[in-house]
TrEMBL record:
One of its GO terms (biological process) is L-serine catabolic process. Residues 70-375 form the Tryptophan synthase beta chain-like PALP domain. This is Threonine synthase. Pfam families: PALP (PF00291). NCBIfam families: PRK08197.1. It comes from Paludifilum halophilum. Its cofactor is pyridoxal 5'-phosphate. It comes from the Bacteria.
Amino acid sequence: MKDLNCTRCKATDSPNRITNVCKRCASPLLVRYGLDRLKHSWDRESLRERSFDMWRYRELLPVDDPEEIVSLGEGGTPALPFTRIGENWGIPRLMMKDEGFNPTGTFKARGAAAGITRAKALGIQKVAMPTAGNAGGAWAAYAAAAGMELMVAMPVDAPESNQRECLLYGADLQIVDGLISDCGKWVERAVEEEGYFNAATLKEPYRVEGKKTLGLEIAEQNGWAWPDVIVYPTGGGVGLIGIWKAVEELARIGWVTGKPPRMVAVQMEGCAPIVEAFRNGWKESRFWEGARTAASGLRVPKALGDFLALDALYRSDGTAVAVSDTTAKTALRTLARTEGCWICPEGAAGLAAIRKLRREGWIDGRESVWLMNTGTGMKDSEWAG
Ligand SMILES: *Cc1c(COP(=O)(O)O)cnc(C)c1O
């Protein structure tokens, strides 16, 4: 790590101090690495001897000493060809990255592993965070593994499976009668009054680094080249920001030099602030009033990193799509019968969006398309029928 860099005013900070956001303008900070040096000192060959988990890319992760790593075996998830449904829909090169194989069943494990690893290395003992559900479960597991205290604020309508897992891992669970944004305010108070470290999305710089490894794995599994299109179900947009960071860093170290992927953000019609912003060409989203969708991971009415996610969409020549809960549910069931995979509601939204984009011609039948299935279907079993 070289420094922390402000995403708006470009001020820098040290990664060796406990830091949340930019001290000058309160915007998110992102880690910068010594990429020019890495370009010469780090070779793809070095990966051969490493196990297939997210820490195989540790030179591009916030870790000074491998001994510090708090791991439950996250990352290294399979990339599966969806040949049958792909043929049926006229996209024979359709692939799925199955994040349901992660500890706690979602790709939130990547962010939690990186965030908790760094927090522990910096000597933090008490962490608090708002969550729509899955992030809380993941952070609770990693906090337990690291012997740290975690307080989680979750909206009342968060899935019961998420509430139970937080309690099981010994987190202090606070149920808030409101939206994720209200949980955020609740956490800020606990941070001020009780000395917790705030680990809310993009209020600490390291979670996105873990999610970035999703992009690093896609590149490696695709033979160190990008697919034409990457489809990402977008809530807070951290995965999207992370994958795009991987695209930029791999280009800078010369590991992937070809055309970058077109990034697609998928949201639900009942909560689609990023889609609305993209359609209007805005740099930021507006708060989405009355957010409604049964896919809890996508119930984020206004994301702190919206401007970064939108920037990735514009720069990659990508797009943003909203689908209905009903279409997503149909896609989920069709997929289960055709390919034998039970994906999460958010992944199902992505799948439905792919079909829509193919029908509209935005995706060409020759293109390679990677769907990010962000979690296992089993945590939302009511979606099964
Ligand atoms: C959190 C979550 C998302 C959204 O991820 P962001 O990085 O916040 O956009 C999508 N799917 C699932 C299953 C999630 O838990």
